[in-house]
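Case study: UDP-N-acetylmuramoyl-L-alanyl-D-glutamate--2,6-diaminopimelate ligase.
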Amino acid sequence: MVLSELLKAIQPIQIIGSTETEITGVNIDSRLVQAGHLFMAMRGTQTDGHVYIPAAIEKGAVAVLCEDVPEAKQEGITYIQVKDSEDAVGKVATTFYDDPTSKMELVGVTGTNGKTTIATLLYNTFRYFGYKVGLISTVCNYIDDQPIPTEHTTPDPITLNQLLGQMADSGCKYVFMEVSSHSIDQKRISGLRFAGGIFTNLTRDHLDYHKTVENYLKAKKKFFDDMPKNAFSLTNLDDKNGLVMTQNTRSKVYTYSLRSLSDFKGKILESHFEGMLLDFNNHELAVHFIGRFNASNLLAVFGAAVLLGKKEEDVLVALSTLQPVAGRFDAVRSPKGITAIVDYAHTPDALINVLNAIHGVLEGKGKVITVVGAGGNRDKGKRPIMAKEAAKASDRVIITSDNPRFEEPQDIINDMLAGLDKEDMQKTINIADRREAIKTACLLAQPGDVILVAGKGHENYQEIKGVKHHFDDKEELNKVFNG
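Here is what the predicted structure looks like once written out:
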């Protein structure tokens, strides 16, 4: 593509050099640059891409997009100066990959909890309807039925547009995508066209990055502020921030709720460990999901599918066939009648939701034993809160290691224990070795009890000192139960 074509979507401050140069690729990582590429220097959270301009040119870059033009300019290289390279990168990548989201219906899901579940269930629902569908999520990306491994909830703009381009070329008609607060803040989704956006809820998370809940909220809200006029915004009325998110959007706003009057209204009629009987907009349906939070997630899926043009009755049939997402309220049964639930809950709110769901089914007929930890090098403020919530809603608590990363597991555990009072401590033990903690929970459980193993869900590794070691909560439970 000729450079002048590539720059149509942005407004450079100045261009030094020829814009008639042929561009064969676009990159933000100088190590991936090849002959004929445009290198875009971004100021990241870890490093400043401007430092790598000489290395990119050495590898064959013929043009450089940057905020600060280098003093020592090389002959034959075109320099494009922009005010905001983060914003420009997404727009340039979209143009280079032939504006893939103009050929598909892209729906983004944002919020603290429920993003993976809703995006994945929408993907499964539309595949059930017979469409080719794309999925961009924390667990895995899919181009129809082909899995593409994932590193981040939302990839960088180049990877993202490349992936969306492959989806468009494969004939995908719909794409469902988790949109993280980081990706909104870092403008990774700049240049994409959304057909719709869904807001799930907002609770404390990622404060290591955003610093305050207000900044976190603003990042999520920006997604809806930028939503185009012809798109829909579907927001959760049961969350106090539901209407805050959509107050400045140009898109058409719709609501869903389990509590109040809304466009998509739901209620739980019956609940068991095998599933629930629900009522959505005065239609009954049985689903293989448990818990109020899952009823809310399914209601969001129902609403979005209807807003994308599907008949309510057809969507309900599709929902009744769906299975829970890996590592989200994933039940394991022991031959002795003990139920273990593996869940990704790694925020106080997610933990409360899962424990409430367990109590909703148990109705006081069994004890709840919770195994929980917290990730290292992440928001430390939520650690004591998570321990407190676990103690409040469990008969026994085992505080253990999650992904300690570069922290000492016992230091993280001590931060969690600081949230407990004398009474809580009497039912709490701490075991740093996660395998031993799970084993101990299984030994403490009696038939009819429920063990919750929270925090890692679908993850099949434990990250210690920068190394990922194989570890799977569900695998460990099966070993003990069937050993």
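For the exam, be able to explain this: The chain is about 35% helix and 20% strand.
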